[in-house]
Amino acid sequence: MVVLSKEEFARAEKETLWSPQLEKDACGVGFVTSIEGIPSHKILEEGRTMLERMAHRGACACDNDSGDGAGVLTAIPDDFYRSELLREEKLELPPFGQYATGLLFLDSETYKQAKEAFSDLAKACGLRVLGWRKLQTFSESIGSEARKTEPCIRQVFVGAEYAEDKERFEREVYMLRKQAVVQMAKQSVDCYVCSLSTSTIIYKGQFTPNQLYKYYKDLTNPDFKSHIALVHSRFSTNTFPSWSRAQPNRMVAHNGEINTLRGNINFMRAREGVMKSSKYGDNLSKLYPVVEDGLTDSGCFDNVLEFLVRAGGRSLPEAAMTMVPEAWEKDDEMIPEKRSFYRWASMCMEPWDGPALLAFSDGRYVGAILDRNGLRPARYYLTEDNHLYLSSEVGVVDLPVESVVRKVTIVKTSC
Hints:
By secondary structure, this protein is an alpha+beta fold. The protein has helices spanning about 5-15, 40-50, 80-90, 110-125, 145-150, 165-185, 210-215, 260-270, 295-310, 315-325, 335-350, and strands spanning about 30-35, 70-75, 100-105, 130-135, 150-160, 190-195, 200-205, 230-235, 250-255, 355-360, 365-370, 380-385, 385-390, 405-410.
């Protein structure tokens, strides 16, 4: 594994045969969730166990201590952030659901400029930055290669006077996230938005699985509670690792590859000329390009899934099934309602074919889906306390046999 700086990335793309559009991964994916939506720190700890037991599915550099990437997606721990901001910044947050938050990877030399630019973009979207939080991180816990490109990490909190109008607020939060990518790149300001959401938060970086929870102090605080912990251990088969390429992405954690990627991107770009939205109206074009430049196949998939949910108004399961349909055409045993859905979806979008396992969450839903090739492993256990454990393999969390009420291997379908 080779770790490159931003300048080396640009030179490699220009002067070598490497192309970021051809990047693929082979990774470890899993999640723990309380089906009843009961948050606890135990779920976060079980997510840690799951991630660290998939260390063999990740990769590391020649220093044997810089990973390809690892991360976790959780629900926003409202009580925890509320108390931390009150203690650290004397900042009082609005009610839960009326603010959005996320981690930003910034350049240490230009982070003040990035914060100002982000605040200006928020104002343009009718939002305001409530405050910034400096996370406590431990650089000594990661490898020397990863430290060379370690970003300046800040957590942003965003609100609006109209935040009680949840649909409008989330619509503008998504607009801000997309505008931050396009406009800040034009200003040559480094800013990667890990996520920006009213319901979920992502902690990730260029780590091995064993380093994630050691690096971010938040994750080991017993007051940090969530009903979801979606984890990912990255093994880049023909890619360069970087902090931003670590997963989960904003909604998806992915194991495998998208082998129809070039066609999927081209079709999505072609649709931009004819798409309309009752939500965004004439502002829809500000969300373009839907698929941002320089992403891996996982990142491209995540962009489109996020677009279908945020701009298209689809539920997350509906959007996932639209992009990754089953082999439905000749399945005589499929119920008529599902066949009809897939027939309709096929007129909206071509399949994103793998082989791939995709785990996804937006805070309301958490699930996983295999593409119709069905060539990536995925199993889940349901326990008597209504906790669901899904992973690329078994044995990642110790469960008493008597507590397991259901065990299922996913085969070309979603759960």
